[in-house]
User: What shape does this take?
Amino acid sequence: MIPAIPSEVVTHMRSAERVVALTGAGVSAESGIPTFRQAQTGLWAQYDPIELATPQAFLRTPRLVWDWYTYRRQIIAAAEPNPAHYALVDLEQHYPTFTLVTQNIDGLHWRAGSRDMLELHGNIERTRCFECGTYAQGWDEEGELPPRCGHCGGLLRPDVVWFGEGLPERELHLAYTVTQQVQIFLSIGTSAVVQPAASLPLIAKRAGAYVIEINPEETSLSVVADCWLQGQAGVILPELVRQVFNLSENQEE
Ligand code: NAD
Ligand code: ZN
Assistant: This one.
């Protein structure tokens, strides 16, 4: 079924020049990568992701956390970008100023072709030392795990932001700056509870932007947004692109 997109949304998107899209785990759900709120499967079903994704968990049980990220890396390596990722590439190519701010660590936006991108929560493909922060150029999965830093001997960890940790300063600063100047702000597939990313749509709204949310579930943003498009990102976003760019139903971008 083709989702109904209010004509007001299409009009706003057609006249805008500066657009920001904030994405969360929901955008990758249709690629088969579970969100934190979906139950984990197999061996990992007994663990709550929110309790594994912390520096305390890594200090207590480094091997367990390392193995969980190895497992997640394998899911990501086998996954492909979905129509939502590709629709965001179309938007980036269409607008003079378009910034994708993502909380995802899976790199699927990059694989789809997005380039003007701020990764707020790091990237699971990178690894750095828990002690001295030095990035590892590669690591051995065969020996002791987690592997050790070549520089100081500390344990290597994924270069992702865990609960209780600060966000990368440069990315956060740029995300705030673009958000304050934007005309359209899209919040897609995020539960809008993890700070400070959750405050971005509110900052945009205060600065006068038209705020659109895309999510099958209601979030704390849904009532604040100018329009909540209820549904899956992989269905709504391509349809939005089609209507905004005035493409016929069978026409490819
Ligand atoms: P979240 O798990 O809190 O929320 C996901 C949201 O996506 C929910 O609101 C859900 O209703 C919505 N959703 C589910 N399926 C959808 C679909 N098909 N289309 C649109 N929306 C859909 O995720 P979050 O808000 O990104 O924040 C939690 C943290 O989880 C972040 O720090 C993020 O780094 C991390 N995380 C990342 C990945 C990834 O990189 N793919 C996966 C899991 C968790
Ligand atoms: Zn080190």
About this structure: The radius of gyration is 19 Å. Strands lie at 18-23, 97-102, 117-119, 122-129, 156-160, 184-188, 210-214, 227-229.
